Every structure is written in structure tokens, then in C-alpha cells.
Amino acid sequence: MAAAVSALALAASHAADADQKVLVSVADNTIIEDPTGAFSAGAAQYFFAGRVNVNGGGTLRRGALRFDLTSIPAGSTITSVSLRLYCSAAGNSTSQPISFKRFTASWGEGASVAFGGGGAAAQSNDVTWQHRFYPGTAWATPGGQFVATASATRNVTGMGFYTWASTPGLVADVQGWVNAPATNFGWCVQGNEGTMQSVKRFDSREAGAATRPQLTVVYTLPPSNPADLNNDNAVNAVDLALLLGAWGTAGPGDIDGNGTVNAADLAALLGAWTGV
């Protein structure tokens, strides 16, 4: 027992080196409420989230934002995710919640150039209220397909930089996309849709370099040997103790990736034993 406790303590004291990526968005657009789906803002320097005022028809705006995560090695464990946006204009300075919700379908960014929240004529492959890719591919639900639960929310008032700190939801989103890159459809940026003139304007990737959307991801690299559970370049009693302590759960120790630590994982660990 004492040996097992000592081994676990040693494992806990071994901190894997963390890596960090700071990424700029690779696609951003505004989903503009319109029954015909005729407007977009793919090449604009801004995107919008919230409800516009009566002069704009009191209609909704939703941001669409995506980052390329392929520079994060497959098998990495995501430990922290934060997002930074620059609010370059606001309908008013009243505090309004801005949320990130994971898209469940892909969408596009075309060449439409808009200088305001009303958008411009949608161009090929633009996302619109009716289309994922204008003019031929429609949303199953007008306005976008995204999960109901926000991954992160914070209040935005007037102009300035705002950071959405790491949450379990953001970490889960990015981990899922790193594990399965084909499912990376990014986030819907949703404002207060119940209040007139709640809209906030954020700089897009077409804006100046200093104010573009920024995603910071902290992660640990996968061990070179999957049986090296504490990533210390050895497979020994420390790893065995970790595996046995997680028996019947999802890990650590799920070497074969089937979702449960069991006899197959134990056999794999013993087969990779170095004892050093």
C-alpha cells in the first residue's frame, strides 16, 4: 500500500510540459436576419451580435467565427481555452451578454463587402440567415445550427478588448475539434436578442492585426508511448498505479482508446514495460 501511495504521489508531482498556441480566426461573418437570405458580410472588417434598432427593422445579427486548430498535434490534451475580441462599436454602452455556442454544421465566408450591420449582397459561399453556403446550401434551421447551451458568456459594454476566460465548455469544444477536425465548424457569437439596439460590433480577421479575433489554447502533448501515462519516458510502477487507480473508468490508462480502462489496457502497459 505504501509503495502504491508513493508511486501515485510521484506521478502527481510530475507535471507534463504545457504548450500554447495563439491563433487568429480563419473565417468570420455576420448572419443577418432576412427572410430571403440575401445579405452577408464575408469580407467585412467587422461582425455583429445582438438586435439592431428600429431603423434597421429591429432584426437580429449573429457572428460566425472559426479558428484553424490543425497546428495542435493530434492526441493532445486541451487544458485551457480563452477568446479575445475587440468591440469597435456598440448600439449603446449598456452591458449586454455575448455568448459563444458551438455550431453543428459548416458555413461559409464569401466576398461580400459590407460597411455596416445591414450587410451587402451575398456572394458565392457566404453564410446568410437562410444559407450555410449561398445560394445553394440551406440551414436546416434559419439563423444557424448551433447547440443551445453557451460554452462561454460575458457582458460587453462599450468599445475595447474583451476576453472570455477558459470554461469547461470552451475546453470541451476545442478538445472535440482537435480529436475530430472534420467537426470544427466554430462558434456562433450570440448577443442579447430580446432587447432592441443591443447589438455589438466586433473586429474581424479583415481588420488590423492588433484587433483581430484571437484564440489562446493551452495543451499538453500526447506521450510518445501511450502506455507512458505520466509522460516521463518510462513505463513502470508509476504508470501501473495510475492505470489500476482508474480501473473501469475512462482514464487515465485507456491505452486502446475504447473508453474504459480494463484488462486490454493492462496487457498493453505490461507489454510496453521498461521498468526504469
**Through-space gap between termini:** 20 Å
What is the H/E string?
Answer: HEEEEEEEEEEEEHEEEHH
- What percentage of the residues does DSSP assign to strands (E)? 25-35%
Helix content: 10-25%
DSSP summary, beta strand count:
15
Broad structural category:
alpha+beta
* Cα radius of gyration in angstroms: 23 Å
Largest sheet: 11 strands, antiparallel
Question: If helices are DSSP runs of H or I spanning 4 or more residues, what is the number of helices?
Answer: 4
The low-confidence runs, each spanning 5 or more residues with pLDDT under 50, are: 1-15
- Calculate the mean pLDDT score and round it: 92
Shape: elongated
Quickly count the domains: 2
Structure description:
The structure is a single chain. The protein has 276 residues and is an alpha+beta fold. The protein folds into 2 domains: 64 residues, no CATH class; 203 residues, no CATH class. The protein is 15% helix and 29% strand. Strands 1, 2, 4, 5, 6, 7, 11, 12, 13, 14 and 15 form an 11-stranded antiparallel beta sheet that branches. The chain has a two-stranded antiparallel ribbon with strand order 3-8. The protein has a two-stranded antiparallel sheet with strand order 9-10. Strand 9 and strand 10 form a beta hairpin. Helix 1 packs across helix 3 and helix 3 runs antiparallel to helix 4. The two termini are 20 Å apart.
